[in-house]
Design goal:
Structural class: alpha+beta
Oligomer: single chain
Radius of gyration: 17 Å
Shape: globular
Number of strands: 8
Strand order of the largest sheet: 1-2
Distance between the termini: 29 Å
Strand content: 5-15%
């Protein structure tokens, strides 16, 4: 679920996923429903622990859960893309969307929707504009994953694969997990970006 304009919302115009909204509100805004649901494919080649670690053909299930829980906590854009017309849409912009910035300084959340302008932004370079995320990335705006061919479920909602895939703990939120790769903690960049979303996003360039 998503919530806007609740008591404690840093920006009342944005839609906060329930786990983040609950944390900011200091109470459970929807006690009848869970904050996140993760469905796991039981037939995948999982490493479930209990040994020396995943082999070069196994995927570490704890690492995958850590990654997916970050999405459930708010590391997620609500955008969609029409392959035929090239239109992008964001019906309920989240704080995550508000921290994504185009190369000319506009916030993704401020672009007209639906529009080809937004479609171009979703398939062009986007960076994170949160002060804490920038600081955790050595003073550089973290680059997001925005391939020129839009990938549903991956585009915009991950850190750039080429930039961060070999960055140690900070690669936990890239779109691809390699067999044998293991994460046991979220890493400083993810934690900083999550902390950014607890604050009011900076104003964007008017469109």
């Amino acid at each position: 679920s998503y919530f806007a304009n609740f008591v404690g919302a840093p920006d009342p115009s944005l839609w906060y996923p329930s786990a983040l909204a609950n944390a900011l509100a200091g109470r459970d805004l929807d006690g009848d429903n869970p904050e996140m649901i993760i469905t796991v494919n039981s037939l995948a080649d999982w490493y479930r622990g209990g040994g020396i670690g995943p082999s070069k053909t196994e995927y570490d299930v704890q690492s995958v859960m850590l990654h997916e829980m970050a999405h459930g906590l708010g590391f997620l854009s609500t955008n969609s893309y029409d392959d035929f017309f090239g239109y992008g849409s964001i019906d309920q912009p989240t704080p995550f969307d508000a921290y994504l910035q185009t190369s000319d300084g506009r916030r993704l959340a401020d672009l007209p929707t639906p529009s080809q302008e937004l479609g171009v932004a979703l398939t062009s370079s986007l960076v994170w504009n949160g002060a804490l995320g920038i600081k955790a990335n050595g003073g550089i705006k973290p680059k997001m994953y925005t391939p020129s061919r839009y990938e549903p479920g991956s585009s915009t909602s991950h850190l750039d694969e080429n930039t961060f895939s070999k960055s140690g703990l900070d690669s936990v939120m890239t779109p691809s997990l390699d067999p044998g790769e293991v994460f046991r903690q979220p890493g400083p960049l993810l934690l900083a970006m999550m902390e950014d979303m607890r604050n009011k996003p900076p104003a964007g360039v008017a469109t």
